[in-house]
Every structure is written in structure tokens, then in C-alpha cells.
Specification:
2 domains; alpha/beta; 13 helices; 7-stranded mixed sheet; binds S-adenosylmethionine; 306 residues
């Protein structure tokens, strides 16, 4: 047929390219592997090797669709969420990123057990300050104190000055780790928060902080991994063997597990609850899987007599 004649049911230029390139490589159709790195990534849309942002947005979108009306209201009370240009989807008119989606879930879990209005909150390891932002936007706290390493502390100070109003920002206290023992502390904090950071400290440092929580706080919320993993298919260990070794060595929970096996994760629950109990006598009043990451657990403990 000459090139000027139109054929019925002809392949598009896109499929012509697939047929000429991917199908041309015999290994792409190898029955033993074609679903993991072969032609199936042209039959489907979910090639994990090149679709990081697609996966993140899909995850946020799906989580956003499950937010309760109360959590949507919590999210809407947090202004200036677009500062820092997060990866965002739009759901029911709201711009939503992963960090604040998780923040409202965390707030939901905690506020069911601790009276936050008028209270004092202490956070250890706050990152850029998303949790502080979410708490202050939703509750009339008396104080929110952040303990952190100096560089992260400077980051959260800059961010929170930008996103909070003057009245809210005045309630935030920043304490560098080197100043903890010399700082003047209030009688008690109503809540201590640690999200995704005890697992990155040495076990000795975590023990020091648990002692501080026992002495200074009435309640403790932790959300951290239940263990470690060594599955190179997840990230290709792109940051190198040294970084992997450091990650494996930190935190109080260092069992290596299959983090995408729900039985294996649930099997670490008792160790998690024991490792993060600040001291004898503290009672865990709620715990469970901290979605969406398969191997994160959350728990809320109350001090004796609280
Ligand atoms: C992975 S980030 C988590 C940030 C935040 N909690 C969140 O979920 O967005 C870990 C945080 O722990 C802090 N951190 C690490 N070692 C610490 C230490 N010894 N004392 C206090 N904070 C520490 C880091 O500076 C950082 O702010």
C-alpha cells in the first residue's frame, strides 16, 4: 500500500513507536519478567521506575477522598499551606499536599484523647514545623515548644514566622538540643509529640528524651516506624551503602522486616508499644497502624494519674 493511503484501524504514531522500540527488545516480552520491567509498563500506566510524582499524587488524591468532614474542616483552618511549593492535588476545591493531610490525621488521633485548647504542647524533632502549624491553626494553645537540632530549628522558625499570624507565632518557643538542660520549663506540658524522628536518633538519645517526657509531660503521642527494611527494590539504595547502614542503626527498633507484609508489621506492635512507653506506669490508651505508610505505627500514652 502506498504511503498516501489511509488504512483502517491503523496504529497511532504512539503505538508505532512502542512496537518499534519496546517490542523490538525480546526481553520485554519474556514471560518470566514482563510484568516487572517489560512490556507491561506499556500496557499499564503504573511503571514505578519513572512515575514518582504520579504515585504521590495518586496517593494524596485517594487519601483526600477518605478525609472525614471534621478533617476537611481541620485542613481548611490551616492557612498558607502552599508556602514552599508542595506537590499538590485539588480535591473538592481544596489544594492538598501529603504533609498537611497527615497532619490533620495526627491531630484527629490526638485530640480524641487530650484536651488541647488552653494546653501546652512540646514537640521533639519538628522538621519545618507542619505539625505546629496544624495544631495552632486548630486549637487555642497556650504554648507550642519545639526542641530540635539547630539547623532544623532555624528552618521551622523561618517557616512558622511566614505561615502563622503574629499572635500564633508568639506562642511558639524554640529550644535547641544543646539548651534543653538549662532552659526554664513550665510545670508540665499537656502533650509531647514525636513524629518520624525518634527512629532517626540513637537509642541512647531516645532514652534521654523518654526520661524528659516522663518528667515534664502528661501525655505522649508517637508515630514512628515499627522496624527497618533492607529491600533494595524500593529505592535502589540510591543514597549508598553508608546511608543504608546509618538508617539501619538508629532508633530503638532495629528488627529488619518485610514492611509490606501486614502480619510482619503487626507482629512488631508489642515491641513498638514497649519501646516508646516513657516509663513504667504510663498507659497506652490508643494505638494502631498510621496510614498510609505500611510500617508506621502510632500510639498515645497517658502519664500515671493524668
Ligand atoms: C524526618 S524529620 C521529621 C520531621 C517532622 N516530625 C515531620 O514529621 O514532618 C526528623 C526531625 O528530627 C530532628 N532530630 C534529629 N535528631 C534530633 C535530636 N537528637 N534531637 C532533636 N531533634 C532531632 C531533625 O532535625 C528533624 O527535624
Amino acid at each position: 500500500m502506498d504511503s498516501g493511503t489511509k488504512r483502517k484501524y491503523e496504529q497511532s504514531p504512539q503505538w508505532a513507536q512502542i512496537n518499534d522500540s519496546v517490542f523490538a527488545d525480546e526481553s520485554a516480552t519474556d514471560l518470566a519478567r514482563f510484568k516487572s520491567d517489560g512490556i507491561n509498563y506499556k500496557f499499564t500506566m503504573w511503571d514505578p521506575r519513572i512515575n514518582g510524582v504520579r504515585y504521590l499524587k495518586t496517593l494524596i488524591y485517594n487519601l483526600a477522598s477518605t478525609l472525614s468532614p471534621e478533617n476537611v474542616a481541620r485542613l481548611r483552618r490551616i492557612g498558607n499551606r502552599q508556602v514552599g511549593a508542595p506537590v499538590t492535588i485539588t480535591y473538592d476545591g481544596d489544594a492538598i499536599c501529603m504533609d498537611y493531610l497527615l497532619a490533620v490525621q495526627e491531630l484527629d488521633f490526638v485530640s480524641g484523647h487530650v484536651e488541647l485548647d488552653g494546653g501546652r504542647v512540646l514537640e521533639i524533632g519538628a522538621g519545618y514545623g507542619r505539625t505546629c502549624h496544624a495544631f495552632l491553626a486548630n486549637h487555642d494553645l497556650a504554648e507550642y515548644c519545639i526542641i530540635d537540632l539547630p539547623k532544623s530549628l532555624e528552618m521551622s522558625r523561618r517557616y512558622l514566622r511566614e505561615v502563622l499570624d503574629e499572635h500564633q507565632f508568639a506562642k511558639v518557643r524554640f529550644v535547641a538540643v544543646g539548651d534543653i538542660d538549662d532552659a526554664a520549663w513550665p510545670e508540665r506540658y499537656d502533650l509531647c509529640v514525636n513524629i518520624n524522628s525518634f527512629a532517626e536518633m540513637t537509642a541512647e538519645t531516645v532514652a534521654d528524651y523518654l526520661e524528659l517526657i516522663d518528667v515534664r509531660c502528661r501525655a505522649f503521642y508517637t508515630k514512628n516506624p515499627v522496624g527497618k527494611y533492607l529491600d533494595a527494590s524500593l529505592d535502589g539504595h540510591v543514597q549508598g551503602a553508608g546511608t543504608v547502614a546509618l538508617a539501619l542503626s538508629t532508633g530503638p527498633l532495629t528488627d529488619i522486616i518485610d514492611i509490606h507484609d501486614s502480619d510482619a508489621v503487626a507482629g512488631e506492635r508489642a515491641k513498638f508499644l514497649s519501646a516508646y512507653r516513657p516509663a513504667d506506669g504510663w498507659v497506652c490508651v490508643a494505638d494502631g497502624w498510621a496510614k498510609p505508610w505500611s510500617f508506621y505505627w502510632q500510639a498515645l500514652y497517658l502519664a500515671p494519674g493524668a
